[in-house]
Amino acid sequence: MTDDEWERLEEIDWLFRRMVRKFVKERDKVSVEGVALPGMLILQKVNRDGEQKLGDLAEELDLTSGAITTLCDKLENKGFARRRRMEEDRRTVLLDITSEGRAMLARNRNVGQRCITLLFGDFTGRELETQKEVFRNMADRLEHFSETVMELVKENAEQAMEKPGKRPDNSPPNNRFLNY
């Protein structure tokens, strides 16, 4: 790989991370009747598909168990949702939407639409199809990202034990975009 090719990849990596950080930062500033946008996603999913296991919600909406618990606490405290334990397996917690939650979603049904159109509304059909393909590919590449990188870290540590002070083979030169 040439230095120019590597620099281009680093710039794309930096722009991608910048976009993710900016999205999360902006998303986290939005509160709808005291509910963060991820909480709205939870309510919409439960409203559409009925009572849900918290673990399934976390998995489907890409939330950690801690995040889902915190969001459900807020939803319950606001009266928008209620949790209950399954009788046959007390470890399993289910979430359902209340009539107050349905009313809140109805009052704010245009919020999700606005979020999506702000991000994607001005792109052409062709650009959207390209983005869809890129996003799918990125999601697939992220599937085993941490395991793959950690394997490299392990290999580097083993190499360092064998040859102290030597830079691992095939490592790229330092660049202004790399700021992990």
UniProtKB/TrEMBL annotation:
Residues 158-180 are annotated as: Disordered. Pfam families: MarR (PF01047). InterPro entries: HTH_MarR-typ, MarR/SlyA-like, WH-like_DNA-bd_sf, WH_DNA-bd_sf. Keywords: DNA-binding. Residues 158-169 have a biased composition (Basic and acidic residues). Residues 9-144 form the HTH marR-type domain. This is MarR family winged helix-turn-helix transcriptional regulator. It comes from Cohnella hashimotonis.
